């Protein structure tokens, strides 16, 4: 009888061990899946940021290439007016494409206005205690201003009694306020970092668009110098000049689309 009980106890222990092992394995699988999902999300976040930055960098390099080709074009334009018109059309289309790519990668200045407003809001959120103090001061000043006439009407004693009832914050209240500040500090720092990045991105976009506009201006000036000679070559020369003018107009549209994101800021930021 004892041997049977011992056997049953061993079987029961084995079953419990097997059950515990399965539960532990299931929990480990769950944790692994959760960890893998979090890692995938982080990878996707960084991938999106990196793709945008790469696209903007490629657009900047394209501007440098166009700038070098314009330098060469200026030296040869008078020798081949029709060829110059064709090159101006090509460079203008590439310039418009670079501007569009930069803006689509997040290189517009849409965040400038929001940054200005968000900066104020962030500063107010980060300095909530200062605002509370200011409101308290304003309230006390209002009370004081109202107390003057009250005293003249014989009601000064009542105002003084109300003022006497006001008590400084207790130690517990001060500790609670300090804890609230500590809890809000990381969020305020994150908002400050976001504002700085948005402002930096907006400044980069403003500089990029300023360069694009300057290159378009140079291309237009070259076209004006060779247009008459190119048209004199006949219908084909006329068409080549028209193509160049259309391509330059496309550059203007793309720059305008990017600038339209924040018209109140960009004209001053991009003043030639």
In words, what does this structure look like?
With 272 residues, the protein is mostly helical. The chain is 89% helix and 0% strand. The chain has helices at residues 2-76, 81-107, 111-126, 128-152, 156-165, 171-231, 235-259, 266-269. Helix 2 packs antiparallel against helix 6 (171-231). The radius of gyration is 35 Å and the shape is elongated. It starts with a helix and ends with a helix. Residues 109-155 and 263-272 have low confidence and may be disordered.
Note the run of SSEs as H and E.
HHHHHHHH
Largest pleated sheet = none
Please state the overall shape, judged from the principal axes of the Cα atoms. Answer: elongated
Number of helices: 8
What is the helical fraction, as a range of percent?
A: over 70%
Radius of gyration: 35 Å
Q: Which residue ranges are poorly predicted, with pLDDT under 50 across at least 5 consecutive positions?
A: 109-155, 263-272
- Work out the number of β strands: 0
Q: What is the end-to-end distance?
A: 102 Å
Strand fraction: under 5%
Category from helices, strands and their pairing: mainly alpha
Mean pLDDT over the residues: 75
